[in-house]
Write a structure and sequence with these properties.
By secondary structure, this protein is mainly alpha-helical. The chain has one domain. 53% of the residues lie in helices and 0% in strands. Helix 2 crosses helix 5. The chain starts with 5 loop residues before the first helix and ends in a 16-residue tail after the last helix.
């Protein structure tokens, strides 16, 4: 019997949960790799560490289009990242510890604040205008 490869496993995940396209899974996996490479020594990362790494990775990859790109893949909040991670965990593509849960990804950060605010122009005070 042939052992399924990562692509075949991902196809099974997509069949079970069609909310996110394959690109979303590849992005999260690449974001995990990016996050681990930032560490002094490779180790298991927490949900919040992964979210921080994914935010940094996404901004470096997509710049001002980050929120639009992620939204196109169905990733509109940090909980979506958790769903993708745990779909991969449940399929054997990723591992987890006993302490890891989907709740680790709840309310991680606001996507407007994380992905739009860094590109908004700073509002400079207008000189010479008096308020009465």
């Amino acid at each position: 019997m042939k052992t399924p490869n990562a692509e075949e496993i991902l196809q099974a995940v997509l069949s079970r949960d069609p909310r996110y396209p394959a690109e979303a899974y590849v992005f999260v996996r690449t974001g995990l790799d990016y996050t681990v490479r930032r560490l002094e020594k490779p180790r298991h990362v927490s949900g919040q560490e992964l979210l921080d790494g994914i935010r940094e990775f996404a901004l470096s990859e997509f710049g001002p289009m980050t929120k639009t790109v992620l939204s196109g893949w169905g990733i509109r909040r940090t909980e979506d990242v958790g769903e993708i991670v745990f779909n991969m965990v449940e399929s054997g593509l990723l591992g987890k510890t006993e302490k890891d849960s989907r709740a680790d990804f709840a309310n991680g950060y606001d996507f407007d604040e994380a992905f739009c605010k860094p590109f908004r122009p700073a509002v400079a005070p207008q000189a010479g205008i008096r308020r009465t």
